[in-house]
Amino acid sequence: MLFKSFISFVLILMLNPLYVNAAINTKPLKVGMELQYPPFEMSTKDGTPSGISVDLAKALGRYLGRKVIIQNIAWDGLIPSLMTKKIDIIISSMTITDKRKKVIDFSIPYAQSDLCILTNPTSGVKSVKDLNEKGRVVAVKKGTTGHIYAVEHLKKAKILVLDKESSAVLEVIQKRADAFIYDQLTIYRDWENHKNTTVALLQPITKNPGYWGIALRKNEPKLKAKINAFIRQAKSDGTFDKLAYKYLKDIKKKFVELNIPFFF
To answer: Alpha helices of the chain — where are they, by DSSP H?
Structure first.
């Protein structure tokens, strides 16, 4: 009798909507990102994921009441992994674009970033107009907004598509490419590491900034609503300010000096 009563209690509990919701919330949140974009996505010496996006993912997990699992995935594999349900969301400094919105959905923006140029001292490049010329070589990272921009707007130039940011920088340093188009933070850091062989043109090359969002699958309105609510709260409660102070203090100062809009 005692065993039967226990089973009945368990069945009643499991049919309770509150129990069902709690069970759903205990399902881990699998977050995909490419850990190759410090200080947003990176890893420590022992391979532990770290950075702004990692901290943001953990904060989202706490908000949702779900354990977070970070999965390090190559950039061009992030969207396929999302669509095949290997991951639940993407937090990887991904720009919201119309092309991407055809296959996946995005949260409201949580940051903005513009494209700019890394060139070398002898290239003669002063602005993006100088790149749209026959004989120019422009390096881009495959699948990024810099890649998309170059293909759409620099039709006279040769577009050199590479898998890694470091490879694109090397092409510029060794003068096999006239420029590398990428976001301002990366270009600034690349210039810092190679001040004698590169020049950073940090002014935006587009009229409209690129906005980053958390990517998720289409037709998941409940998850999207919760993520949007989290982003709004994180903006109002100082979460993003704390992340900027922790990871971007010096760079924020430089952006202010150059009168360039900051990420958050």
So the answer is: 2-15, 17-25, 52-64, 75-83, 98-101, 145-153, 165-173, 184-193, 221-236, 239-247, 249-257
